[in-house]
Amino acid sequence: MNPTIELLKSHRSVRKFLDQKIPRETLLELIRAGQSAATSSHVQAYSVIHVTNPANREQIAELAGGQPYIASCSDFLVFCADMKRPTEASARTGAEVTRGMTEQFLVASVDTALMAQNVVVAAESEGLGICYIGGIRNNPQPISEMLQLPDHVFPVFGLCLGYPDPDKLPEVKPRLPVEAVLKEDTYTEDAQHVATFDSNMKLYYRGRSSTNKDTDWSHNLTPLFSTKVRPHMRDFLLKRGFDMK
Question: Domain boundaries in the chain?
Fold first, then answer.
């Protein structure tokens, strides 16, 4: 394996950081690396809010479900899907712009995720640790107000960045076997692969160094699909101008 593939396969979410700041130029280079990600039709439908105000970070930590590492990491970023910039740029050419299309929502969301993952890989290549914060979507309206996000912009997720505490690094979490996700020509059933993976995940959860528990992958998914998770998001997105037309 080459070093890039080894780096990708060693990914883990880091929640314990050293009290050490990331140099400003390093942070800027990470963002530049993110901008080099693939982007649909070169739209670049994203903006990144670097949250530096300590009080705001503390508040976001609570709004995101009580995640203190949002406040304790070196740098916290909020990645936003941004259809304001490209549609306004198009309008300035004299074009009659259509807003609120479902495809625009998808383009902005995908562009944002691709850009963020480039930032993550770049950060990990520099020895930094990261943790995505999907809990941003627990309370997207007050967070949007705090960050002064305009219409046609919404927060997709946050990202903690910092130097990981080497004494508190989590183990690398197993992934589904490649045979479960790589299908040849047509979609095929993968229940047997999932059953094998459940057995492996049960061993992982029982044996990991912190927050060990007696469960598996399938049971861990239950809260996500047995309840209506974040039902407020549809109305929130409509108010942001993402009409899903």
Answer: 3-171+228-239
